[in-house]
Amino acid sequence: MVISIVINSLENYIGHIREHTSQWGDGVIPWFRGEPGDVETPLLPKVFRKTEDGRLHDENQLLQMFRMKAPSFSQGTTPQRTNTDHWLFLAQHVGLPTRLLDWTDSALIGLYFALKSTSPSVWMLDPFGLNELSVTFKKAEDEQSARSFPLTWFDPRGTIKNIGIENIKGAWERSYDGLDLPIAVHPTYLHPRMSAQRSVFTIHGARKDPMVEIIPDRILRKFVIDPSASHSMLSDLHMLGIHDSTAFPDLDGLASELSALY
To answer: pTM value?
Structure first.
């Protein structure tokens, strides 16, 4: 059972983050994901959720067709065809259903996205702990590499596996399952919003279940925001410089921010 903590102020939120992160050891910078607390399948990528008519998406067909047709819509700014990790990051960024989940390594950005919901909650993850669980072939150097973030483009040959590419291959190849568990990766930033939001991703593998069901609670926490405190916490975020234009550094974000202020 994932530990769930009720939060009623920004100070309370930061205090619990400090307390629980200290249990994960030195060097861990936790990741955060704002998500509605009443979602039926928490921490499940969109591509594995049933559509309104009860069907599942064809992941491979989605990605292949997206890669074929996107260049004419993006005016030549799409990745090279062979950079499957970049294509997967781009697809997630523009809203295509993928096996990725959006996270951020900023506690305040994670809270900002959570407060957009009427039932706000924030998940906190130990990404190193997740990657340690996901390593399937271990030598001394593999155990050490699990305490850093794997490259998503390096596909080594031989006995050493790079966990950073295993689940990406699973997304693109019908006959390839990838690792059993999700992995945590830093993406290539393909859009200013990704850098502004300090985007990081988990990538599901062979098991297409919500993360709350397949990873132990020792590396996952859930902060449930008291809805009555949402307005004051959002005001505190504004005071600390977290606005719509912070997370969305473009004209849309600026317009949304100014509309709220004036």
So the answer is: 0.91
Which residue, chain included where needed, has tokens 């098991």?
Answer: 207
First-residue to last-residue Cα distance in the chain: 44
Q: What angle do helix axes 230-239 and 107-114 make, rounded to 10 degrees?
A: 140
**pLDDT tier at 155 (50, 70, 90 boundaries)?**
confident
How far apart, in whole angstroms, are the C-alpha atoms of residue 135 and residue 122?
26
Q: How many angstroms separate the CA atoms of 125 and 32, rounded?
A: 6
Asked if residue 83 lies in contact with residue 153, where contact means CB atoms within 8 angstroms, the answer is yes
Give the position of tokens 């993928």. 98
Per-residue pLDDT tens digits for 229-256: 999 999 999 999 999 999 998 899 999 9
The CA distance from 139 to 119, in Å, is: 44
Average pLDDT, stretch 181-207? Answer: 93
Nearest Cα to Cα of residue 101 among 39, 24, 153, 16: 39
